[in-house]
Structures are given as C-alpha cells and as structure tokens.
Amino acid sequence: MPRPHDPLAAVADGRDPGPFALVRRADADRLDLFTGPVVTVDRLADIPLPSDGPGPHTLALVPYRQIGERGFTHVDDGVPLECLRVDGHRTLGLAEALAALPDAPVVTTGGGFDIDDTEYARTVDRVLAEEIGRGEGANFVIHRTLRATVQGSPLRAGLAALRRLLVGERGAYWTFLVFTGTRILVGASPERHVSVADGTVLMNPISGTFRHAGAAPDRAALLRFLRDPKEVEELYMVLDEELKMMATVAEHGGQVIGPYLKEMAHLAHTEYLLAGQGSADVRDVLRHTMFAPTVTGSPMENACRVIARHERTGRRYYSGVLALLGRDAAGRQTLDAPILIRTAEISPAGDLRVPVGATLVRHSTAEGEVAETHAKAAGVLAALGLGPEAPTATGGAEAAGRRPLADDPEVRAALVARNGPLARFWLDRRTPGATVLPGLAGRRALIVDGEDTFTGMLAHQFRALGLDVRVRPWQDPGPLDGEDLVVVGPGPGDPRRHTDPKQAAMRGLLGRLLDQGRPTLAVCLGHQLLAGLLGLRLHRREAPYQGVQREVPVFGTPRRVGFYSTFTALADADRLATPYGPVELSRDAEDGAVHAVRGPGFAGVQFHPESVLSRDGTAVLAELLAHLLEQPSRMATTHDSPHRG
Question: Which tens digit of pLDDT belongs to each residue from 226-269?
Fold first, then answer.
C-alpha cells in the first residue's frame, strides 16, 4: 500500500511538497492535513464542490477584491481566488504535528508598518470627522500592513511560525498554514465568519479588545473594559450588522446567543454567536455575507467606499476568508469559513505582509486605535520573531498559569448584563406564527432599501407580524401596485443634498406616495426625507448618534430604541399643519429633535425599530402598522369616503 503524501517530510528534505494546508480548528488536539491541486476561479459560484461522497472537498482562499461580486467599491489588486481541491485528507495529533514542524526561530529583516503611527493616527481623525461625523456610517475598519523580509526558506519559516502559534496562541477559531505554490498564508484567526452544517447557519461577530500582553490580566481593568460604553456599543454595532447578513441567508433571521469572552494570548475579545436555519447553496451564503463588518464597517456598501477612499490600496487577502466547503454523509453542503485576520502572507521570495486594522467608532481616539493595531498583530508578530512571546498556551488558559477569565462571577455577570437593554425579538427563540397580529396576515409590504441592509431585519420583523414582504433597491423604479404598505428605508448620506441621485430618487418616491395617499412608513434616512417634505428643518448633530440607545417619547409612550444617524429634523411644536394633513410629532424636549412623525396614512421614525438596540422596536412597529393599515389613509378619506362633499 503506498504511503500517503507527507508534505512536511518533503519540506524537511528540501523537496517541493506541492500545495497543502494544515488546520487546527478551535483548541482541538489534532490538525487536518489537506493536499491536492490548486485551481484559480473568477467567482465564488465557480468554487468546485463535487458531490462524490462526504467530507471536505475544497479549501478556497477568498481575497477582499471578491467584494466586487456584490457591486461594491474596492481597489482591485488582482489577487486571485485560489482553490485547493482536496484529494488527500488525514489528521495529525497535536503532539505529532509539533514534532514534525520545524522548531526554529524565524529570522526577518527590515520590519516596519507601511503607514507609521503618526500617519495612521491622522487617518483615524479624518475618518471620524469626514465619514462618521458626516453621516456616512456607524463604524469603519481601516487597516495598515507590517512588512518585512523573511530570511531563509519562506515555507520553513511559515511552518516554524505555525508551530509557535500552536504553542503560544490560544482561543483561535482556526490556526493554520496554507501553501498554494505561489503564496503562504499562516495565522491564528479568532473569528468564524460563517459556517453551515445540518442546515444551521452560524456567524460569530467579535468586537472590543482588552489588551494584556500575555501577563496576568488586571481584574479591575477587565471589569472596566466590560462596562466601557465604547466597547459595549462597538460590539452591539457589529452584532446589528451581522444580523443584517443573517436576515439574507437564514429563513427566519438569526437568534443571538451570548455574549462570551474570547481569551487569546495577548488580548481578549467580546463576542456573540448568531444561529439561523438556511437552505441556500453555501457559495451563495459566502457571496451574501462578504465581508464581516468587524473588518469593514457599517453600513456595508458605504463602508467599502470609505475603505477605498482612505486606504487607496488593495487589501489582498486581509478581511477575506478561508472557506472549507464539503458535504456531509447525507450529501448536504457544508461550509466553515474563518476571517483572514491575524494572518501573515509570505511570498516565495520571502516578502512578508501582516495586515491589521482597528474599528473606528464615534468614541474612538487616534491614540487608542493605533495601540489596538499593535495589540492585534502581537500574536502573529511573536510567532514571526517580531515581538515578545506570550506564555505557553497549548493547554489553554490553565497552562498559562491561570483559570479562564470568564469563570469569574463578576465577569460573567458583566457579560450577562449586556443583554439587559437589547431587543428580545432577536435574543429569544421565536415560534413561527406566534407573533402574527390580527388583520395583518397576507397584507403586502414593499421595503425600499437606501443602501443599508437593516432593511433585511425590518423584513423579518414585518413577516413575524404577519406581512408578506419584499425588498428592492432604491434604484429600482418598479411599480407600487398591489402593495398595502411602502416602507422607505434607511441608508447613509446627507438628506439635505438635493442633487445626490439617491436622495433625489427617494425624496421623489416619498413625494409620489404622499400625493397618492398610499400608506407609507419612513425609517431613518427615509424619515429625514419625509420630514423635509413636511417642511421641517434638517440639522447635522454635533455628536453623531451612531449606535446610540436612548429612551425617547413615541406618541406619548416612553420607548427604548436604537439610533444610527448623524442628521435629525427639528421642530418647535408637537403639531404641524401640512398639505398632506395634520401631523403629530414626537420630539426631544431639550433640542427639538424629531424622533417620530405620523399623519393620515403615513408615519416616520428616526430610530431603527429593527435594531437589536431597540428593545421596544417590535411594539413600536405594531402600533405604527395599526395606524397605517387599520385606519383609513388620506387617499381613502378624500376619495373613497361616503361623507366627502
């Protein structure tokens, strides 16, 4: 019987090993060794996924430029979508793998960031002022890259780095090395992007970084981190953004599980797990979820524009994914895809790249985000001999001389407390049909998307309440006939820019809906445009309301809701006479900011009732739907009423 191909022995003997991958998933006591030929394809739909038996079939290296498949702006660096077609698969025990991997230091020269700390800090300040401060989004991830040159064999250096990651890192989702013949990727990614097994779709938003550099963490500092509003809001925002994605790939949206504390050698993160049921082709799941908001920003489409404006270079594989595609014993497709972060890329010539980014939110400081990039790179840099090593971690946190941080009762309580203000709609398991409101079953709603896929979450809420819902982009001028309700939805941008094509199109749609008296709901950007048509002044807030949760009055009832906005309408009174009839306003008593409006057959809300931050969002929607669909619209009052004169 021929012996299985052993690429590690080939490397040790100085022979060409051919393409292969070594993967440790979570903190398992074994690694998967995949071998096979590499093919390059153009699109995710072209990734090979044969049906000849169970098991892993393809390992795909998906670069950031594939975001172009969604029509999103990007700098095209030409980096290929490479696929290792698995024709050999065996497992190695962790001890066996460590014995086979080179136990030698990695030697590099010329190490340094392509963007130094001062320039990166200036970029952070620009993004805060010019993008978040002007309503372009809630958060954005801007990266920079440490570059160096590896001395000696690049592949042996990569394998040595893998060994050091296996020994010195912990808590990673995947610890891996992939060799395609043209490049080496080696890293320890903390974050599952998306996986599919048994019809269950899982995503894993991670955000918030507690730095401890491998030393015993300061318990008081950890508790301050867990209660820090910036860190809490940062995780909430990426949770919302990944719920938008789950709304696309799971039939009933995602259920939120957690939060948890993910402990690694140099830092700890907070994270949630999202679970939903889906039946889409796993390649479509990959396409609809390109890419994680934790490495891009939100809303996603505009985040890609912001990234292109401020980075000006391609991202290569940074923020893309590794994707292991296969089939189970029943022939169903499977997928496991970690995000390509905390990952080094090494060329055959020894050029080393370690990209790393920080999430910029309204509370960010340039100094803090510079420090975060250093902390996130620390694990990989230590493995490459470019930074201090953390304590040995092959046995988990206990092997480093301490118990898991999450075992502390106060830490657990601080994590549990994060769910207190959130919407139970997303936290609780929902029985289909249990939340349908009388009179709504079968009624039809159209949601117009203003480039913010919060509309997918809105659609799930409406369906849970009984409506038949479809979503279409703002550019689609399709007919409105047969719709019981039209929702003009959220999106980034300045509603005062009358010449902007999106603002003009959505304003024109709202004007037609009001003129025709069609039942209309406007959300966030839609609400701002509606307020302008009603004669209210639009104002840019001095401090953006991006990822802000507040209790505000909504037509006489206090409601806790989530805001993602930089602009607001202002009013001096609670009632307004308009050409479309009398309008009732809910506004802030201090500054006159208008949180909600309603008139005959129309309504608008500045906040996002669909957000996980809107604890009372479903109740607000139920009340608004009663107003819009159970009461006569202005069109019915003026044209169909038997009392018209």
Answer: 999 888 988 999 999 999 999 999 987 789 999 999 988 778 89
Q: CA 487, CA 86: separation in Å to the nearest integer?
A: 47
CA distances for 276 relative to 24, 247, 261, angstroms: 25, 9, 22
Active-site hit among 266, 451, 524, 627 = 524
Annotation says 524 is catalytic: yes
Instruction: Quote the CA–CA distance of 358 and 109 in Å, as a whole number.
Output: 25
Mean pLDDT of the chain: 91
- The answer to whether the pTM exceeds 0.70 is yes
Distance of CA 565 to CAs 236, 447, 556, Å?
Answer: 15, 19, 23
Residue ranges of alpha helices (H) inside 418-500 are 424-427, 454-465
Q: Which two tokens stand for residue 217?
A: 């963490």
460, 595, 608, 627: which is the annotated catalytic residue? 608
What confidence tens digit (pLDDT) does each residue in 156-206 have? 999 999 999 999 888 899 999 999 999 999 999 999 999 999 999 999 999
Closest CA to 521 of 633, 640, 639, 638: 633
Q: Does residue 608 carry a catalytic annotation?
A: yes
The torsion defined by the Cα of 623, 624, 630 and 634, in degrees rounded to 10, comes to: 150
Dist CA 154 CA 183 (whole Å)? 9
Q: Is 375 helix (H, G, I), strand (E, B) or coil?
A: helix
Short-list 531, 536, 550, 449, CA closest to 492: 449
Domains and CATH numbers, the chain: 7-417 (3.60.120.10), 431-640 (3.40.50.880)
Q: Which tokens hold the place of 531?
A: 């307020």
- Cα 520–Cα 513–Cα 459 angle in degrees, nearest 5: 35
